[in-house]
Amino acid sequence: MSVFVEVDHIDRIFPLPNGNSYTALKNIDLKIPQGEFVSLIGHSGCGKSTLLNIIAGLDRATTGGVILEGREVREPGPDRMVVFQNYSLLPWLSVLENISLAVDEVYQNKPKGERKSIVEHHIDLVGLRAAANKRPGQLSGGMKQRVAIARALAIRPKLLLLDEPFGALDALTRGGLQEQLMKICNESNLTCVMVTHDVDEALLLSDRIVMMTNGPEAQIGQILDVEIPRPRQKMEVVNHPSYYGLRNEIIYFLNQQKRAKQRKARQKVVLAGNGLEKVNLELGFIPLTDCAPLVVAKEKGFFEKYGLTEVTLSREPSWKEIAKGVGTGRLDAAQMVAAMPLALTLGAGDKPPIPIVSAMNLSRNGNAITFSKKLFDQGVRTLADFKEAIASSPDKVHTLGMVHPASMHNLLLRYWLASGGIDPDTDVSLTVIPPPQMVSNLKAGNIDGYCSGEPWNSRAVYEDLGFVIATDLEIWAGHPEKVLGVTEEWANKYPQTHVALVKALLEACEYCDDWRNREEIVEILCRPEYVGSAPVYTRPGFLDPYERGDGTEPVQMYTFNQFYVNKTNYPDRAERLWMMTQLARWGLAPFPKNWQEILDRVCRADIFGEAARELGFLDTGRDPRTMIFDEIVFDPEDPIKYLNSLKIKQPLRIQEVCLI
């Protein structure tokens, strides 16, 4: 179905009298086909009416815009009509005159008789023939709203916008008007967008229900398809088998948002004299090429620039120690593998949940799958060859290393294997090995291959121990790789320090993606206190053409290590949701029934946005649909359906994750 209305990545920011600003809406992206009825629902202050006004042309987005039938909406027009809760009728005009006023204005070129016919038809349409000559003061609330609807429909708009049109009416009147509206919309194939607080009203009228997160920086949290056949009668809808499941899902979402609002209200902040709550930080990192942002922020003075005067970088032996260090408070913050904040928050591995906040990505891409030269000598060049090698040696267990269960190395390695018909839990053995130990384990024959970041793939190639069978650019180009992680308790206790930390790292990320700086960065990374690797296997992919060790020519890959360009740093909810599906797919963590609440608490785009705006950087998001190499599109509106569509997986567990 073609797109009729497109809301294209809208932000709406309001200036405040004190010189600050308030971001009401953040990165709203919505496509509406013709004839669809869409409801916007959420708690007060989530920007529903603001979004409706932008679609109507009564307000303008700060960034992004609205397209109606291929044309940008810049101002109000007769192709869009709004019905407000307060009727907005002229009290000195009759029902007929109120409707005529709109018709006469829009259809000035039509003969008077034809205009009168349009008015009379719409008076009959809403059942107000007996009250045609009465003024608003003589009408009930329901009758006034019928006049407003008739006036809106009489100019034959392409798009009908309703802002809680039945909110002030009694139940009986509301029910009658809802039925009339459904009948009119169905007969006219009218496209409608309605703001409502009424869950049952949304289910009765809507084809889709757009659920908004709390403001400020409200986003689309979830979109629910209401697949109940039309035409609808209220009792038939209530008795439909899916009705209570849909209703419970909306209530559940709204309750998650209510709890989030209560948590925020309980937060208390105490500022130090310099505006930051804490200036001495211990930050953890793993010796990999993509630790560059932390190293650069330290060496080039970006931490100091933002008031973080005593920052120590702690080189950790494994991702397990990173998780332990942040969880116990030994580390203030750390470079983390992308899904680690989610895994810790979900209590993966049946451990107690530790709520972790991730306000930015530090890098994208940068990984490869390296196989042993022994497999290369056996003729393995592709995934299909590897599957054949497994089948031809049933007595041998092929063991592959990955750096952490919640790493993209593990998730992408598993996805890649499964795409080739290899079950990563039964056909091979996966084992956790810290990145610096990958090469020595490959050399000792303990593993047949591994998925890791650099420089550990290039080192195996350089020492003629292995070859790169695939890079992550061939699996999911642009995937989140490393993120900044802090405990939620730390984020709540030190909010200004957190923003300063993000700002320093954002500047460092920008510095890292300026290729004029890469020579200098390689020299710094190779120092023993950081990565401590030789330049010859640190440069490939980061600066020099990438050598795969398979006889092919080295290739220059400018996005292999990506730190800032192409919206690298924005913490995208859809990407985190995909990671949750993969953790559940492989039995690493249950898929949380309250996944919206988990995303709200882990994926803190509001903190990122504050830091980015203060720097004058873009704080917009990426495409909300995640694309992997096999072109299976992940739909963030229905993660369970996506999970069920995957052929190779563990038994799916869905349960609520209880957080403090």
* Tertiary shape: elongated
Rg, nearest Å? 29 Å
What is the subunit organization of this protein?
A: single chain
Record field, number of beta strands: 25
- Percent helix, as a range, is 25-40%
Q: Point out poorly predicted stretches.
A: none
Q: Which fold name is given in CATH as the topology of the domain at 1-79 and 157-266?
A: Rossmann fold
Structure characterization notes:
With about 650 residues, this protein is of the alpha/beta class. Among the domains are: about 1-80 and about 155-265, P-loop containing nucleotide triphosphate hydrolases (Rossmann fold); about 85-155, no CATH class. It is about 35% helix and about 20% strand. It has 24 helices and 25 strands. The strands form six sheets. A six-stranded mixed beta sheet has the order 6-7-8-3-9-10, with helices on both faces. Strand 7, helix 5 (about 170-190) and strand 8 form a beta-alpha-beta unit. Helix 19 (about 495-510) packs across helix 23 (about 605-615). The longest helix has 24 residues, at about 245-265. The two termini are about 45 Å apart.
